[in-house]
Amino acid sequence: MFERTKLIRTFESLTQDERNALFEQKSASVVSALKKLDLPGVDPLSALSALILSCVVSDGTIDDKEYELMLPFLKKLFGEDYDFDSIKKEVLVSDETSKELASSVKVLIDAFSMLSEELKTDAVTVCLCILSVDGKISKREKRFLSKLV
Question: Are 131 and 55 in contact (CB under 8 A)?
């Protein structure tokens, strides 16, 4: 429990530039690792997109900071026309859908850990970057995080 609290505080205290750099680095690492594994039926960008959107959905809202962090990646994935309204439509889901997404992400993280512990660590780091983007990881976000690790 202490290590988790310490880890959360570390991510909450990152500057926006540090968080952006870490997010970009670890997102690229996850995609690269999945491409190298060349798993049948697994699109690396879609897997990372599901992970990212599930993290955003974990608290049921999307704010400007989450949007700014995710936008470069999502534009690479979905095209330059992807905007805040498009992301909000993706995020505004029911609690039931949110629970389903969290469950899917848990399966994804578990699969990552079977493939490589480093891949799992990188994926969880991506999640922590998103969850801490506003400088505070909420109780709902902490519950989501505890389901992943």
Answer: yes
